[in-house]
TrEMBL record:
GO molecular function, one term: nitronate monooxygenase activity
Record has Plastid as a keyword: no
The keyword Flavoprotein is annotated on this UniProt entry: yes
Record-linked Gene3D superfamilies: Aldolase class I (3.20.20.70)
Name of a matching Pfam family: NMO
EC id: 1.13.12.16
InterPro entries (UniProt xref): Aldolase_TIM, NMO
Entry keyword set: Flavoprotein, FMN, Monooxygenase, Oxidoreductase
Protein name: Nitronate monooxygenase
Amino acid sequence: MEKNKITQLFGIRYPIIQAGMVWCSGWRLASAVSNSGGLGLIGAGSMHPETLRDHIKKCKMATGKPFGVNIPLMYPQIEEIMQIVMDEKVAIVFTSAGNPKTWTAKLKAEGIIVAHVVSGSKFALKCVEAGVDAVVAEGFEAGGHNGREETTTLALIPQVRKVTGLPLIAAGGIATGEGMAAVFALGAEGVQVGTRFALTEESSASDAFKQKCISLKEGDTILSLKKISPTRLVKNDFYHQVQELEDRGASADELRSLLGRGRSRRGIFEGDLVEGELEIGQVASLIDTVVPAEQVVEGMMKEYYEAVEKLNRIVF
Ligand SMILES: Cc1cc2nc3c(=O)[nH]c(=O)nc-3n(C[C@H](O)[C@H](O)[C@H](O)COP(=O)(O)O)c2cc1C
């Protein structure tokens, strides 16, 4: 028998990490997942620094279990955000969208466990050099901002596994225990689940966004905005406006000015399904109900054990 590296590292029961997600993952979702035995992450990406402090304080009140904060490194007030995380003695930080070298050593000097999100094995090597404690490898299927390489989770995980022995968390397209078993077979030791948790009761996304996402069919999302920051979007009116500009060969500046500010807030949080930016993963088309986060964690673990048993029964 071998102990799981991710549950050991974070001091949690199940190796299921609820992804940090703009406009979805506040203290309510993070604490619900942590209380269910997974690891909840507060998504700092959509929060003003003092809002983040408030969410951290509320999360501490709502759970005695480990939880963390996800910080996209291109965040404009990054110094302030990091100071808050250190002041509040947050034990776990997941960084993304940037170079892990910039903050890992400083966070680790404060005793913080650091994981970093990558979309390819060359970035995983940078994580090793930076001294992170765990790598999250996120494939092309994933919701939100995405890598330019378009490597799918199935192709990505074994390649990242090949270049590093660090604890490895797979992300992108994982919403079930069967998906979890599949990436474990490829060498992952944990899963980071975004889309499935964005569409739970405790997610702070608007109900309109959740209902729209659970109605999606295969092919209803696409990786868009590649000239500025590749993002997986629902093909709504806003996406079609982007597409029209891109077809005309628009510059990055033109795309930036169409995007403007607050598009994802408008789409995800305020529920403007027409003009808003609706970020969600390919696996949304597999989801048809909005349930409590605890049900997702428990359901995934049950499915995982059943999937492994089923595979064990196959004879050749
Ligand atoms: C609505 C939404 C918002 C997201 N926001 C962030 C974010 O702020 N920071 C980040 O590192 N990743 C973000 N992501 C990506 C997730 O952290 C996660 O890696 C991804 O959702 C996993 O793939 P899945 O959606 O197929 O489960 C977001 C994803 C979604 C769906």
